[in-house]
Amino acid sequence: MRILFITASRLGDAVISTGLLEYLRQTCPGARFTIACGPVAAGLFQHMPGLDRVITVTKRRYDLHWIDLWRHCVLTRWDLIVDLRGSATSFFLWARRRRIMRGGRRPGPRLAHVAQLFGLAPPPMPVIWTDPRDTEKARALLGTQPLIALGPTANWSGKIWPADHFVVLWTALSEARPDMRLAVFYGPGETERQTAAPLLAIPGSIDAGGRFTLAETAAMLELCALFIGNDSGLMHLAAAAGIQTLGLFGPSKASEYAPSGQNATWIAAPGPEGEAPIAGLEIQAVIDRALTMLPVAAPEQKS
């Protein structure tokens, strides 16, 4: 069985779609998958069982990227095409079945919209796929000390909680749990690194950003006890990794993009959803919520 799965260009949306992809993998034993996604999200699928290939869809003028995708896929007879982008490409490929998301953005959780394509309620939770080499590299970098992960970046400035707020947050958390170490996560590129710089300057912090694959990043997040960060692809990746995750929201809508996972929650700046500046999210409110999510310290061993 051959399945073409067309998903998002943005990392956060692509992570959200992994729950449906894992559902298909579990319910279609032996199926072989071709994933079409944007270049930022491509590494998310590299260790997915049943993967044939990942087709990177790089946006071009006049929507020519959809013609590129058609050329890659037209010679295959697909058993199922799942198109979360609602593109016309899906209609010009041979397929026994098609499930195509239409209608653009709608109110309510994006996770539920994706699941509705197959009538799934509750929706399947996002997942990550790693291999032992990713975990080995993560352990070599992070060590064995308990970790708190902070994600101070996002894909646009309106979603970024001020870096000095993150520094104050870390001070409070480290006072509550002096045995825990800071791991700083951010995406590739100098802009992301500069945004994370105030946290990277904290003595003893671990630089866990910029230069790692998504699978390696996911493996590192799995080793952390708690992630606190802006609404971003990293936030969704942390939630999918199953760790305690606190997403910080301002002008983006938590009703649509809250982190999805058994241990995930969020806090938003006061004001109308979609309009509240994230700078209005009070430091103490985040500290108070984060302290409730800290793991209990292991008892000290008596000599």
Topology:
Blueprint: E1 2-6, H1 11-27, E2 32-37, E3 51-56, H2 64-73, E4 78-83, E5 95-100, H3 110-116, H4 132-142, E6 147-151, H5 163-176, E7 181-184, H6 190-200, E8 206-207, H7 214-222, E9 226-230, H8 233-240, E10 244-249, H9 254-257, E11 264-268, H10 283-293
Parallel strand pairs: 1-2, 1-4, 2-3, 4-5, 6-7, 6-9, 7-8, 9-10, 10-11
Summed up:
It contains ten helices and eleven strands. By secondary structure, the protein is of the alpha/beta class. This is Glycosyl transferase.
Structure description:
It comes from Acetobacter oeni. Keywords: Glycosyltransferase, Transferase. InterPro entries: Glyco_trans_9, LPS_LOS_Heptosyltrfase. It is a single chain. The protein is an alpha/beta fold and 303 residues long. The chain folds into 2 domains: 2-116, Glycogen Phosphorylase B (Rossmann fold, 3-Layer(aba) Sandwich), CATH 3.40.50.2000; 132-293, Rossmann fold (3-Layer(aba) Sandwich). Helices cover 34% and strands 18% of the residues. It contains 10 helices and 11 strands. The strands form 2 sheets. The chain has a 6-stranded parallel β-sheet, with helices on both faces. Strands 3-2-1-4-5 form a 5-stranded parallel β-sheet, sandwiched between helices. Helix 1 runs parallel beside helix 8 and helix 5 packs parallel to helix 6 (190-200). The radius of gyration is 20 Å and the shape is globular. The N and C termini lie far apart (61 Å). The mean pLDDT is 94.
Structural class: alpha/beta
Q: How much helicity do the residues have?
A: 25-40%
Strand order of the largest sheet: 8-7-6-9-10-11
The CATH H-level homologous superfamily of the largest domain:
Glycogen Phosphorylase B
CATH topology of the largest domain: Rossmann fold
Radius of gyration equals: 20 Å
Question: What profile does the largest beta sheet have?
Answer: 6 strands, parallel
Distance between the termini: 61 Å
Indicate how many domains the architecture comprises.
2
CATH architecture of the largest domain: 3-Layer(aba) Sandwich
| General form | globular
Average pLDDT number: 94
Query: CATH first level of the largest domain: which class?
Result: Alpha Beta
Low-confidence residue ranges: none
GO molecular function: ADP-heptose-lipopolysaccharide heptosyltransferase activity
Pfam family, one: Glyco_transf_9
Protein name: Glycosyl transferase
Organism: Acetobacter oeni
